[in-house]
Design brief:
four-stranded antiparallel beta sheet; Heat Shock Protein 90; Beta-Lactamase; 9 helices; single chain
Length: about 425
């Protein structure tokens, strides 16, 4: 699983903010390192000058005057005393902050220096023994205030304030960059529901404006093509209905009653096929406003209609009503098609309404022979029929399941078919809530 955010906005903010924070932390680390080195060098040089001055002053005295002067020159952070012997120097002489090298340069190479405690970064404490020309050694124990080497808290406060301001700016810039893309995605999702929705506002960076212009041009072309198709279908409908009407009138002139009745049935079937095909091609099956409906009441109504016709059909629904935003007639037609197909394949049908996470699931199961596996998806194709006869009572026009899928898609859902383990077909209509 990727640790990156799923949205473009989140990734932009993470990339820019992460790069900024990393750059600031590296800059702060380099700054603090350079600061410690500079302070250490400065303090070491100043301290070496003072130690050399004290050494010269004490070395110029004789006898007990040296010890008295050493005590007078001592401070809380630098204690001076004159001793007869000096301990051995540390085995590894550090040149931390260039303190010792600068001290040796100021005192002169002829003055012996024995460091016992050496200063270190952040803890500038030392104990030195300097040889006196008049005999003996000058012992110096000293340190500098820790505050000099402590981390500057104001630096972190300034860094935090700067990062906060820049992060807010990054958030605003990323939001402004992503907002047009979000509008484009919303418009693309809504295009299937409403081709006449207002065009996108063509503003923002040049790339975003070009994308909005391309989308608006595509919407205009699609709308123009559909309007052309509707005009064509209207003309075809008119041209085809006219000869059907003439044939119906001429059939009334037939003397043979049986032949006249057969003509009427054929003409009725032709007219129904023509009407159904034209409605499907026009999208009339789902051309309807969305409104709240009671899905339980809708299923009960459809099942009651079948029960009155003498069919064996069972319904299982929750004990409470469920409100659902849908196209009422289109959804009623789709579920009715599923039930009618099930009744053609089996004498007993089960209709079950189930609730899943974020979806309504309507199952229609029959006890018929089922379908071959390779036919389970083909039956959704327009005008595709498993039964090759021209009898509408058994074969139909081949639009029933195509209309069901069209309705499901326009509601943001889908329809799937599967064979039941015990025999029969199961149709699952899934509609997101």
């Amino acid at each position: 699983m990727s640790l990156l955010p799923r949205t473009l906005f989140g990734r932009l903010v993470l990339l820019m903010a992460g790069g900024l924070v990393l750059a600031q932390l590296l800059g702060a680390a380099l700054h603090l390192s350079e600061r410690q080195r500079t302070i250490g060098t400065t303090v070491g040089h100043e301290l070496a000058q003072r130690v050399a001055a004290v050494h010269r002053a004490i070395d110029s005295q004789n006898g007990s005057a040296r010890q008295e002067l050493a005590e007078r020159l001592s401070t809380p952070r630098q204690h001076l005393s004159v001793v007869a012997q000096a301990p051995e120097a540390v085995t590894s002489v550090s040149e931390t902050f260039e303190f010792l090298s600068h001290l040796a340069e100021v005192l002169g190479r002829e003055t012996a220096i024995r460091p016992v405690v050496l200063p270190s970064a952040g803890d500038f404490m030392f104990e030195l023994y300097l040889e006196l020309k008049s005999g003996g050694w000058l012992r110096i124990e000293g340190s500098v205030p820790r505050a000099i080497f402590s981390w500057p808290l104001h630096l972190f406060g300034n860094l935090t304030l700067m990062l906060t301001i820049v992060l807010l700016l990054i958030w605003g810039v990323a939001r402004m960059t992503v907002r047009p893309l979000t509008r484009l995605a919303q418009a693309a999702r809504g295009l299937g529901d409403d081709l006449h929705q207002p065009p996108l506002v063509e503003e923002g960076p040049s790339e975003v404006r070009e994308a909005a212009q391309a989308f608006n041009a595509m919407q205009r072309r699609i709308r123009h093509d559909i309007e052309e198709r509707e005009r064509f279908l209207a003309a075809v409908s008119h041209d085809l209905k006219t000869p059907v009407t003439r044939m119906r009138l001429r059939s009334e002139l037939l003397i043979d009653d049986h032949l006249r009745e057969r003509f009427r049935r054929d003409l009725d079937e032709m007219q129904q096929m023509l009407g159904g095909a034209l409605d499907f091609l026009r999208g009339k099956a789902v051309d309807e406003a969305i409104c709240p409906i009671d899905i339980v009441a809708l299923l009960e109504s459809l099942v009651d209609d079948q029960l009155e016709m003498g069919h064996e059909i069972a319904l299982t629904v929750p004990s409470v009503s469920l409100r659902f935003a849908a196209r009422p007639q289109a959804l009623r037609r789709a579920i009715g098609n599923l039930i009618n197909n099930a009744l053609k394949d089996g004498q007993h049908v089960n209709v079950d309404l189930q609730l899943e996470a974020g979806a309504l699931c309507i199952l229609v199961e029959d006890e018929g022979p089922g379908l071959p596996v390779d036919e389970l998806d083909k039956v959704f194709e327009p005008f595709y029929r498993m039964e090759r006869s021209r009898n509408r009572e058994t074969g139909g026009v081949g639009l029933g399941l195509a209309i069901v899928r069209q309705v499901a898609w326009r509601h943001g859902g889908d329809i799937t078919l599967s064979n039941r383990p015990g025999g029969g077909l199961r149709a699952l209509l899934r509609l997101p809530q």
